[in-house]
Amino acid sequence: DSCGTNLNFEFISSGINAEYGGAGGGETREELVYRLAAEMLEKVPEDFIPHEVKARLQKYGIFQPMNIFLRQEIDRIQRVLTVVKSTLKDLQLAIDGTIIMSDALKDALDNIFDARVPSNWAKVSWESSTLGFWFTELLERDGQFKTWIFEARPHVFWLTGFFNPQGFLTAMRQEITRAHKGWALDTVQLFNEMTKMNKEDVNNSPTDGVYIYGLSLDGAGWDKRGMRLIEPSPKVLFCALPVVHMFAVNEMTKEQKAQKVYECPVYKKPKRTDLTYITNIRLKTNQSPDYWTLRGAALLADIK
């Protein structure tokens, strides 16, 4: 079945509270948070060294739209890494009694104990229902940026891992516009084709545009063979979409215009608002597109 949804449950157990005050008194609240802080500090990624990043960007072409985008994203993930490390180190010092427990540290202690994201982390990052999901996402986002900057541009991108996914798609549009003589950015529009590939099947970049993965259908299913929308399977909340080829066209061909498609909105999170809206993706359908509009079918970059 193409609609498998794989969630990775990670090191911070949701039973964090059950651990506290267990048999024989167990660890105190402070001891537990101290231990979790130590575990997170061990796992939190290395900082991005500015001169190393700059040298790589110069090699790639510092003024290419995609590399400008990458630099902005790295600045933002580095801000998160800095805040996480300083909070965790200070929290250990405060629990030890070496420094005063400020309001921000007390907030961090309470949240980490409840397996929630400390407020000062949430401010500079992304929404997440649990600290475990959030921390896993930090490692995965960081991994995508480190691979891109220090190894090579990925063949397939995890759209969910960007702070500014719209900015990513705009940079891609600019890149394509520059590559085609006579194309102007204001007439070039985003376009997409579906593939049958999962991310593991992608060995090359497309000639134009990008491959993206990580989107899930909400309110519809996906027929992988026919590459079109179908009724969702009973009891399946979200259906994973295969890799999408995103590119841009100067104008649509007759065939492209004639395709029966549902312009499916893509949102960052299950909470669908103007703030979490990213773009539309064209999905083929046998039913009238209105059918899926009424069903509220949408794509989510993150289902947690």
Quick overview of this protein structure:
With 304 residues, the protein is α+β, with helices and mostly antiparallel strands.
Question: How do the helices and strands line up, and which of them pair or pack?
Answer:
Blueprint: H1 16-19, H2 29-43, H3 50-60, H4 65-96, H5 103-113, H6 119-124, H7 131-150, E1 156-158, H8 165-179, E2 189-194, E3 210-213, E4 216-218, E5 221-223, E6 228-230, E7 238-240, E8 244-249, H9 254-258, E9 261-267, E10 277-284, H10 289-295, E11 298-300
Parallel strand pairs: 1-3, 9-11
Antiparallel strand pairs: 2-8, 3-8, 4-7, 4-11, 5-6, 9-10
Helix pairs in contact: 2-4, 4-5, 4-7, 4-8
In words, what does this structure look like?
- This protein is α+β, with helices and mostly antiparallel strands.
- The chain has helices at 16-19, 29-43, 50-60, 65-96, 103-113, 119-124, 131-150, 165-179, 254-258, 289-295, and strands spanning 156-158, 189-194, 210-213, 216-218, 221-223, 228-230, 238-240, 244-249, 261-267, 277-284, 298-300.
- A five-stranded mixed β-sheet has the order 7-4-11-9-10.
- It contains ten helices and eleven strands.
- Class by alpha and beta content: alpha+beta
Stretches where pLDDT is under 50 for at least 5 consecutive residues are 4-24
Q: Termini distance?
A: 21 Å
Query: What gyration radius follows from the Cα positions, in whole Å?
Result: 22 Å
Query: Percent of residues in helical segments?
Result: 40-55%
Order of strands side by side in the largest beta sheet?
7-4-11-9-10
Beta-strand proportion: 15-25%
Shape: globular
Characterize the biggest β-sheet: 5 strands, mixed
